[in-house]
Amino acid sequence: MLSFLTSGKVGPVVVSTLVISGFIIVLVLLIIKPIAIDATIADILKILVGSLSAKFGDVVQFHIGSSAGSRDKDSVLKGLVGTTEAGK
């Protein structure tokens, strides 16, 4: 599960953690502590929540969706190429 620590690919995990944390923090703050704000700030917050929710979906897709499948496919192909080259 923590293989990313030994592989040197910590960047995507850090970015994913920041996006998910930001999404959760903004939603919790909006739900727990509603504030009286003018229409301009409310529109900005709506845009922020919309952007974070879209990126949240991207993070999930990256880790369990097509990007994860693509990484698996690449590792299988590298294994096949390594096996073929070793046989020459």
Lay out the secondary structure.
Layout lengths: L2 H5 L3 H22 L6 H26 L1 H21 L2
Task: Walk me through the structure.
With 88 residues, the chain is mainly α. Helix content is 84%, strand content 0%. The protein has four helices and no strands. The chain has helices at 3-7, 11-32, 39-64, 66-86. The longest helix has 26 residues, at 39-64. It is elongated. It starts with a helix and ends with a helix. The mean pLDDT is 75.
Short key terms for the protein model shown above:
mainly alpha; 84% helix; 0% strand; elongated
Largest sheet: none
Quickly give the structural class. mainly alpha
Give me the strand/helix succession: HHHH
Total of DSSP H or I helical runs spanning 4+ residues: 4
- How much strand content do the residues show? under 5%
Helix content: over 70%
> What is the total tally of β strands?
0
